[in-house]
Design a protein that fits this description.
The structure holds two protein chains of two kinds. In chain A, 34% of the residues lie in helices and 26% in strands. Chain A is an alpha/beta fold. By secondary structure, chain B is mainly alpha-helical. Chain B has a two-stranded antiparallel sheet with strand order 1-2. The chains are: A alpha/beta, B mainly alpha.
């Protein structure tokens, strides 16, 4: 690695572990210098979590060596790891939601002290010390369950710092955060670095890796495929390391746009969520709608699909005003909607892939009132093939699929209703890079074939690459429209903020 | 052997009950062969189960949607009391009822079913009352009405043509009540397996929110479901009328629990999304065998029947646990 070995805080080499016949890690090495921000990246299932569990003593490795702070370690228990200064902040933060912030922070120390009685004064003092390290301003008496995700994360970081941490491992810390909260988190990470604490930052988001880390390690299928300085990395290399595939990210250019708009919103208003929204969508174009998390974009999406009807204004399809009061009205007007949260709104998780695909068009799969199983199976077969859903049996529960393939099922379900307008709210959230690319290709193809597509997303690279026109929504109002040359990330971002 | 195993696993709920049934039948053959295996005993059993069997067939539908119908028994008694009142009003307490008037009884059952079912569905779908409370409330309402109408006493003076007709057997071995049960069982099976309704309620039962997003007309689905349930219960009421030859506000008060027990035993998931007609029919027959078998033992009081039902339910759940276990992937060691 070029670096002098004595400078390393953590040196893990040739780590191997297998569960049954599955070789979760084949030959992985990872080295971290004191006080550096190191990014560990890789797609879901590549072995990132397994590696950190080995380092923190949760799993025992089958082979390889680990040195921490210059000391060779044969066997690590979770207690050893904590005592040496290794702290892991998991995605669920491992906090007690029913206890207060102060109790959560002081719990370990109090228990460790072996005292029978709780000194509340002591609890408060410990907690105050803990939060002061990251200048966190928080009500110590608040129940953790009532805090926002970002606040919980800060509490978890404060707790980690109580143990003289030398290395803090953060497992995908930005997943549930807004852009502002991510910025605040990064500030704290830099502050920790200044105090000489090393951070192992786990992420699969390209922009974060570039923004925060100095060095990186990328895993794929249990093997280390690359490690080095982040400044030597670029977009296409990163994607290639992650997936092993090279993608041509094709910028969407509308081929033939219909003369008249096929879908219009005229002064659509829903007080408190969005106001006076005017949108025109032509067949053959992909319109992007972007805005911050609470900008009203989701409410607008739900209003277009009838799940949260607007209180005033008109929805116009092919020049005619239509009433869309529920999802059925929307489907009858040939509008499809890929929801924001596929787990709670898009899929019947325990049901088969097949049932999930056909449910919205089920009334067309009958002959003489009787459910035609053959027709259904044909339809399912077609869509599984068309969308390249990776499954050996469509009667398996949809939970057996990866996030990307689940999203393809949601897409198939809506395409099966033969929509002319397709609204997608966060079409690639939680989807691996390969499937994300596949979904973009599908969407561009649909638009080329004449469908009107609306992508609602805060993933700016996605918006810029796939949309021919972008509307920015801020505090419930459309504040800007970009197209052609003016359509770039910087312009959109400044309109969003 | 492998083929057998496959058939066993393909319908695990039914197979499991059949195993228990086989053991029970062998046990009865050894212990009480002559008394249990008599044509008369089988005829008695066949005459008894349709009344609550119908409630199970109907009640399983709300349970598949993730709800429950606790108004089954109230609906049944309400129906039989209305029928008796009408017959007395038209033909007098000791008059004769024209045979064709039986159709009117069924008509009343259908009307009561539609009304009660709509009320349940209205509360559940439009006002978002939890099904368990909505239907419990409706049941109390009906029970109250029944008591007010009858003054709490049994009415046994009314034209008995209906009761006579439905307590007879065809060809000496097939009770007419069983015919009604088979017809309804076929109807419910047809709806669940041969129409899109079955897929829709199972998906609705899995996740109502996603069903809404998928464009399923959930209000219509719930109305259909609760109406079917109440119509079945009302038909059950007619069968009770035939059995007891009288109507009372609180006949069959233990049928609610019994019906729920049979649904769960028959593989209908109380969480919704799962349930088959074949399962509940097997459960109905099994429980009837067990109940009747126990009655053959002079030394065992009939009070023990409830206790044994509880034991059977727990046994089925235990078998379910062990049957499912190896199929679960071990999740402990996943990275």
């Amino acid at each position: 690695m070029g670096a002098n070995d004595e400078m390393l805080l953590l040196k893990a080499e040739h780590i191997k572990i297998s569960f049954g016949n599955v070789h979760a890690l084949k030959d992985v090495s990872l080295s971290i210098r004191p006080g550096e921000i190191h990014c560990l990246a890789g797609e879901n299932g590549c072995g990132k979590s397994t590696l950190i569990k080995i380092i923190s003593g949760v799993y025992q490795r089958d082979g390889g060596t680990i040195e921490f702070n210059g000391k060779k370690l044969d066997k690590i228990t979770p207690i050893d790891a904590i005592n040496m200064g290794i702290q892991v902040i998991y995605q669920d933060f491992s906090l007690f939601p029913n206890l207060t912030v102060a109790e959560n922070l002081a719990l370990n120390t109090e228990v460790a002290s072996g005292k029978r009685w709780v000194s509340w004064k002591n609890v408060r003092k410990i907690a105050e010390d803990a939060v002061s390290k990251i200048h966190l301003n928080i009500d110590l008496e608040a129940k953790v369950g009532t805090l926002s995700v970002a606040q919980k994360q800060m509490v978890a970081i404060s707790r980690a710092l109580m143990f003289n941490a030398k290395l803090i491992i953060m497992d995908e810390p930005t997943t549930a955060l807004t852009k502002k909260e991510v910025d605040a988190l990064f500030k704290i990470i830099l502050n920790l670095k200044a105090q000489g604490i090393a951070i192992l930052f786990i992420s699969h988001k390209l922009n974060e890796v570039f923004e925060i880390s100095e060095r990186f390690t990328i895993l794929r299928n249990g093997e280390m495929v690359a490690t080095g300085n982040t400044k030597d990395l670029d977009d296409s290399k990163f994607t290639y390391y992650m997936t092993g595939r090279e993608f041509e990210n094709k910028k969407f250019l509308p081929a033939k746009v219909s003369e008249k708009p096929i879908f219009e919103l005229d002064d659509l208003t829903s007080p408190g969520s969005f106001e006076h929204v005017n949108i025109k969508l032509h067949g053959g174009e992909i319109l992007g709608i972007t805005g911050l998390l609470d900008s009203g974009r989701t409410e607008l999406a739900l209003a277009m699909f009838g799940m949260l009807p607007a209180s005033s204004g008109k929805i116009i399809r092919n020049g005619k005003v239509v009433e869309i009061k529920n999802a059925r009205d929307a489907i009858a007007n040939k509008i499809g909607y890929v929801p924001e949260d596929r787990l709670s709104e898009g899929l019947f998780l325990q049901r088969s892939i097949a049932d999930n695909i056909i449910i919205s068009e089920i009334d067309h799969l009958t002959s003489k009132g009787i459910y035609d199983r053959k027709k259904r199976d044909r339809e399912v077969g077609n869509w599984v093939h068309e969308m390249e859903v990776k499954t050996d049996n469509p009667e398996n529960p949809v939970t057996t699929l990866s996030g990307g393939n689940q999203q393809k099922v949601v897409l198939a379900k809506w395409l099966a209703t033969k929509p002319e307008v397709l609204i997608l709210n966060g079409p690639t959230v939680g989807v691996d890079i390969g499937s994300k690319h596949d979904i973009h290709v599908i969407l561009q193809k649909l638009a080329e074939d004449g469908m009107g597509v609306i992508i609602i997303s805060d993933d700016l690279p996605e918006i810029v690459q796939n949309c021919s026109r972008v509307d920015v929504i801020k505090e419930g109002r459309i504040v800007g429209e970009f197209s052609g040359e003016g359509l770039n990330e910087a312009a959109i971002l400044s309109a969003m903020m | 052997m492998r083929k057998f195993k496959k058939a066993f696993n393909s319908n695990i709920e039914v197979s499991r009950l059949l195993v228990i049934m086989a053991f029970w039948l062998i046990f009865m053959a050894v212990m009480q062969g002559g008394k249990f295996y008599s044509g008369k005993n089988f005829l008695t059993m066949a005459g008894q189960f349709p009344e609550y069997g119908l409630m199970v067939l109907g009640g399983m539908l709300p349970m598949i949607t993730g709800g429950i119908d606790l108004s089954l028994v109230g609906t049944a008694n309400f129906t039989s009391i209305l029928c008796v009142f009408l017959a007395v009003r038209m033909f007098g307490a000791d008059g004769t009822m024209p045979f064709g008037f039986i159709v009117v009884f069924f008509l009343i059952a259908a009307i009561v079913g539609v009304c009660v079912g709509s009320l349940n569905a209205l509360l559940v779908s439009r006002l978002s009352v939890p099904p368990i409370l909505a239907t419990l409330g409706v049941n109390e309402l009906l029970l109250g009405l029944n008591i007010v109408m009858t003054g709490g006493a049994a009415i046994s003076d009314f034209p008995k043509e209906f009761c006579d007709f439905f307590s007879q057997n065809i060809g000496g071995f097939l009770p007419r009540k069983v015919i009604i049960f088979i017809l309804i069982a076929f109807l419910v099976w047809f709806l669940l397996e041969k129409t899109t309704y079955g897929t829709k309620i199972r998906l609705y039962g899995t996740n109502a929110h996603v069903a809404e997003f998928s464009g399923i007309n959930t209000t219509r689905l719930l109305f259909k479901t609760y109406i079917l349930s109440s119509v079945c219960a009302a038909l059950g009421g007619l069968m009770m009328l035939a059995t007891y030859s009288s109507a009372r506000a609180d006949y069959g008060s233990n049928y609610t629990m019994q019906a729920i027990l049979l649904m769960v035993l028959g593989g209908v998931s109380p969480n919704g999304g799962k349930g088959k007609v074949s399962g509940v029919i097997t459960a109905i027959i099994l429980l009837k065998f067990i109940e009747s078998g126990i009655n053959r033992f002079k030394s065992v009081s009939t009070y023990y029947v409830t206790l044994i039902w509880g034991a059977v339910l727990i046994l089925a759940l235990v078998m379910d646990y062990f049957g499912e276990k190896p199929r679960k992937v071990r999740v402990k060691k996943q990275g």
